[in-house]
Amino acid sequence: MELCACKDVRHKSIEECVFAPYLPANKPEKYATLCKEFDISKLAKHLMGIEPSLRHLYFHAEAHLRDPVMGITGLILHLQRQVQDLKAELKIAKRDYMMILEENHRHQHLMIRSPL
Fold it and tell me: Could you list the residue ranges forming a coiled coil in this record (predicted)?
């Protein structure tokens, strides 16, 4: 099994490390992000009891480092704006598609009615 990135949190075996499934040795930036945002030894003790998803904590920590004021809320608001923008673009694309279909239908109808 690959070693965990949290080499300074000492465990007798890799199976004992609560971070091992989430912090592989080839992703040290994830561990560094958690260390910047949280007390890693307290986090390890906390995880021993409940073992929540570290991915959520990593995203929370990363968002807070990028935007200390809004944190994860800022990311959520940004994603909600993107969804709204994409919905508006989709509505426009559907309208344009319907206009093209109507134009093609009118053109075909005129071709059928007009004598050669």
Answer: 76-103
